[in-house]
Amino acid sequence: MKSTLQWLARQTWFQVLFWTLVLIGAWEAGATLVEMTKRMPANIMPHLYQILQAALSGQEVSGGMTATQVVLKASAATLGRAFLGFLLGALAGYMLAFLMKLSGVIEKMIFPYLMLIQLIPVLGLAPIILAITGNINSSRLVIAAILSFYPVATNTLAGFKSVEKDKYDLMATYAAKKRNMFLKVLIPQSIPYFFTGLKVAAPMAVTASILVDTLQGDGGLGCILSQALKHAMSIYVFWLIVFFSAFVGIFSSILIHWVELLVTPGVVVNLLRKLSIGKEAGAYGRKNEKVQKKKKYPSSVV
């Protein structure tokens, strides 16, 4: 029995299931407590089955649409801009990390401003961006890109810096050029760190896009969120958006993790290795390997 429990405790699926059940139990306990106190409306923190009923119900809540239809329609603009902003921020973050690795001067000049951008509250930054762009869609994209930019840049730079000195020495022995150093060692080494940054950035991009929606009513998730909380729309729409946003954030991280598993072990790394090291370094390396094999396994061995 004890060994079985220890085995289960080591399984990822069991850990996920266990903590999911803990969260569900905590939520239901809170909902029951709110219901018992009667000091506030019970639907302020409804039971999970009530939220599920609202999602599956055919009852119209706004403009002839059900709660689920309202959420899905509002999510199109919000998540579309969040995705574009995430891509732009990730690309810009990786390129900046590359530049900072190329030059220590650039790193010293730019890195403090990266920290400064991260410290600016999104609630304060979003109205400024909206005032500058004058367009809610552009604001969603810019804010999502800014929040995605920092984790990707810092994690990728950490990946570049994590390369051991022995690898540099080995490449120097092969007379590898700087371009080959990046293709053969630095970029493959930075891939896991880059994906870690993406996992952090993806949910942040969704959150940023929803936050910008609350500033201007154009039907995005944030706008519907505010309307559901303040006006006559069903409070269950509010909770549907909350859980839907959480699901999108979690799913985006899981999806990035799956992509990481596909590319990290072989696809990208092997491709970069085929493109790198140079003819002269490769020839030298192969020749050196043959010499080492002859020394290790002499032909006279019976």
Descriptive terms for the model:
disordered C terminus, two-stranded antiparallel ribbon, 12 helices, 302 residues, 82% helix, 2 domains, MetI-like fold, mainly alpha
Tell me the overall shape: globular
Q: What's the total count of β strands?
A: 2
Look at the structure and give the CATH class of the largest domain: Mainly Alpha
Poorly predicted segments: 277-285, 295-302
As a percent range, the share of helical residues equals over 70%
Please compute the radius of gyration using only Cα atoms: 26 Å
Structural class: mainly alpha
Distance between the termini: 54 Å
Count of helical stretches? 12
Main sheet specs: 2 strands, antiparallel
H/E element order: HHHEEHHHHHHHHH
Q: In terms of quaternary structure, what is this?
A: single chain
CATH superfamily of the largest domain: MetI-like
Strand content: under 5%
Reported CATH architecture of the largest domain: Orthogonal Bundle
Strand order of the largest sheet: 1-2
The whole-number mean of residue pLDDT values reads 78
CATH topology of the largest domain: MetI-like fold
Number of domains: 2
